[in-house]
Amino acid sequence: MKRVIGIGNALVDVITKIDDDSLLSELGLPKGSMQLVDMEKSAAIKSRTKCFGPAYSAGGSAANTVHGLGMLGLNPGYIGKVGKDTDGDYFDGDMRRGGVENILYRSATPTGTSTVLVSPDSERTMATHLGAAVEINADEIYDGIFDGYDILYLEGYLVPDNELIKRLCGLAKEKGMEIAIDMASYNIVEENLAFFREIADKYVDILFANEDEARAFTGEEADRAVDMIAGVCSIAVVKTGSRGSLIRRGEERLMIGAMAGECVDTTGAGDLYAAGFLYGYANGLNLEKCGLLGTLLAGNVICAVGAKMDENRWATIRRNVVEIEKME
């Protein structure tokens, strides 16, 4: 079994279900996007939406994926930076309770937060104040940080820090590791397209994208985009929402259907898809089973509010994982 270590923006999620998308326009947030905001705007958004009764959880894209791997028993690692505050303590404890080995740097800057606004149609829009998370830098990535791990998982939100990404990828390749990345958000791809293409071609083995991100990266719709991405990376995965996902490796091409069920909130769907897929990959399963495991986790998390699921749901998921592993 291969071990996975992830790195990303360590955040505390503030998850709020809103009753009308007009609120997004009022707040200046394009629906479905991830917008970086300063501390003042973050506070204003939280104040405006506190009447909806938000829920809280440790979050950040890579953290959600790594937490999912921990809940499946893979014993993953996570690298991030948080504040010397109660939010930082909460993040650390929540991840460790999920079976994750943390390498957390601490800063005098407050822990970052992501306000996740969930529309009536379950689409999520994020306003993120990175806080301490953005302070992690290339100089803090020491030579032995990846010892004992086989796969490095990156979130696309780190890509604007070119120096950090190059340090992470260069060191991982020196250690003989494979690299997986999730593109994270279409606007991040658009704003960093040349660098995304550079690292994908030079370093990335497994690339995850949703339809919008794949279109931003290739200029093509999902069916053609997955082929183009697979021409750059070893494995391309394009998630197509309610239609499922497309997977391509060499001449092997698969369409995995979505899991039936009521969608309550899409927050974390892509992150948990990556967790299921990487769990299968780390255990040497074929691409079909990897895709089915990704679909299993994504299909369950959208039935809950936020990117975390309770232990009863995880117990059911683990039983279903065993069934998929045994499939002929």
How would you characterize this protein structure?
It is a single chain. The chain has 328 residues and is an alpha/beta fold. The protein has a single domain, classed as 3-Layer(aba) Sandwich (UDP-N-acetylmuramoyl-L-alanine:D-glutamate ligase). Helices cover 40% and strands 24% of the residues. The protein is built from twelve helices and 14 strands. The strands form two sheets. The chain has a nine-stranded mixed beta sheet, with helices on both faces. A hairpin with a 5-residue loop joins β7 (111-118) and β8. α8 packs across α9 and α10 runs antiparallel to α11. The longest helix is centred in the C-terminal third of the chain and has 16 residues, at 311-326.
Query: Per the principal axes of the C-alpha atoms, what is the gross shape?
Result: globular
CATH superfamily: Ribokinase
Question: What distance lies between the first and last C-alpha atoms, to the nearest angstrom?
Answer: 20 Å
Count of helices? Answer: 12
Q: SSE order in H/E notation?
A: EEHEHEHEHEEEEHEHHEHHEEEHHH
CATH class: Alpha Beta
Helix content: 25-40%
Count of the separate structural domains: 1
Question: Any idea what the radius of gyration is?
Answer: 18 Å
The appropriate CATH architecture is 3-Layer(aba) Sandwich
DSSP strand tally: 14
Structural class: alpha/beta
CATH topology: UDP-N-acetylmuramoyl-L-alanine:D-glutamate ligase
Largest sheet: 9 strands, mixed
